[in-house]
């Protein structure tokens, strides 16, 4: 069995996954920062060190994501859409619709019964439907991004945002704080606003069950619950939803290594 490496350089976070054939051995994540090339090397080195390996032990490397072209040690680059499909379908063979909530973009992807991409839609160039919105609100509330999901679930009276734009919603959130709105209610309102934009993507794509959520936004339980409520379904979430594209890249690398 060969060791392979999948590297996903996202706009917000970078991830690297080491697999032995199609078994996950180790992974690493870190903020992408200003140099995608340097981050790709650092993230991969951490994942390799966790696996007790070095780059010379890797038979094949596939890069994906926003900064895939900067990964100069990769044997091949593949779109993150295809890598997400490979990773999620391996984890959840029943999934036919995937929602990926990234730092800059969110996307809805539909699979066929073989796990191949049948169609996909990306959100417009607006942070209102992406993880960036969550980071903006967390900063305003002086909270850690990891804390906002659970707190939002305590809301009794979610704030209604009149705009779906992250820029204007930021100003609106500041106004609501000044008016005395509770942080939990503001967060619940933000989750509802983001969920609404994501639901629009899913409706345009056409929802086919089962449905899964990946990306950094999937780590926010309040946001996942808001989307479940809007769609009136249960949604599958991987144990580590940020690494599915990198994992998919590694799985595809394993196929190439065998060939």
Walk me through what this model shows.
With 259 residues, this protein is of the alpha/beta class. It has eight helices and nine strands. The protein has helices at 36-51, 80-91, 131-140, 148-152, 166-178, 183-205, 221-231, 244-258; strands spanning 3-9, 13-20, 23-31, 58-64, 76-77, 97-101, 106-111, 117-122, 211-214. The strands form two sheets. It has a five-stranded mixed sheet with strand order 3-2-1-4-5. A four-stranded mixed sheet has the order 8-7-6-9. Helix 3 (131-140) runs parallel beside helix 5 (166-178). It starts with a strand and ends with a helix.
Indicate the topology.
Blueprint: E1 3-9, E2 13-20, E3 23-31, H1 36-51, E4 58-64, E5 76-77, H2 80-91, E6 97-101, E7 106-111, E8 117-122, H3 131-140, H4 148-152, H5 166-178, H6 183-205, E9 211-214, H7 221-231, H8 244-258
Helix pairs in contact: 2-8, 3-5, 6-7
Q: Which descriptors would you attach to this protein?
A:
4-stranded mixed beta sheet; 5-stranded mixed beta sheet; alpha/beta; 259 residues; 8 helices; globular
Short description:
The chain has 8 helices and 9 strands. The chain is an alpha/beta fold and 259 residues long.
Quote the distance from N terminus to C terminus: 12 Å
Strand order of the largest sheet: 3-2-1-4-5
- Summarize model confidence as the mean pLDDT: 92
Number of helices: 8
Q: In terms of structural class, how would the helical and strand content be classed?
A: alpha/beta
The sequence of SSEs as H and E is EEEHEEHEEEHHHHEHH
The main β sheet shows up as: 5 strands, mixed
* Dominant shape: globular
Helix content: 40-55%
Quantity of strands, as a count: 9
- Poorly predicted ranges (pLDDT <50, ≥5 residues)? none
Q: Over all CA atoms, what is the radius of gyration?
A: 19 Å
